[in-house]
Amino acid sequence: MKNTPKYTYKRLEENDLVHVQYLFLKVFKNKLSLTYLKNKYDTSIFGMKYICTIAFDDKKPIAFYGAIPQGFRINNHSFFVAQGCDSITLPQYQKQGLHYNLALKAYEIMKEKKVKFVYSFLNENSYYSTKKLGWKAPIKMKRFHLNIPTLPISRITNKLGLQKLYIPLVDFFFESICR
Fold first, then answer.
1. pLDDT single digits (tens) 36-66
2. For residue 60, which of 99, 93, 101 has the smallest C-alpha distance?
3. CA-based Rg of the chain, rounded to a whole angstrom?
4. What residue segments make up the domains of the chain, in order of their start?
5. What's the predicted TM-score (pTM) here?
6. Strand, helix or coil at 34?
7. Each residue of 138-158: pLDDT tens digit?
8. How far is CA 61 from the centre of its chain?
9. 7-140 architecture in CATH?
10. Which of 37, 97, 113, 163 would be 2's cystine partner, CB 3.0–4.6 Å?
């Protein structure tokens, strides 16, 4: 782990969710409820409550590494993996190794909980950071599609150039069910 002595790295606890809420608001301009964050990151149902990590500069939250465990079963063998998600660093603290250090601390927690591996759908920022962590990313994905048995409303709005009307409607719908 890179040593950055002036920062504190710790495992996320329930009382830290207010800090995660602050980071989402400051970095992504996304106001999430504490209930939403607790439902997302309190994964005690899997026997591993909060496998996320958070960094502080003194008492100020500056970065977060989110991860969510998932149970898998192949034949009669059950195991856990984790999806790395929601990496957040305040702009003035970027490029200081915070994501790297938070990820390593999260991986220690996951190893202790017998999580077999971590995967993620990387964006441009996290793509380069995870390469430093030794992740293998043979190809860059531009997008993916899920086939669902409904009308292809998104495809139709894209073809008709109606995304400016459709996207706010989708955002409104998901905000109403996610909060």
1. 999 999 988 888 889 999 999 999 999 999 9
2. 93
3. 18
4. 7-140, 145-179
5. 0.72
6. helix
7. 666 666 676 777 777 878 888
8. 16
9. 3-Layer(aba) Sandwich (3.40)
10. 97
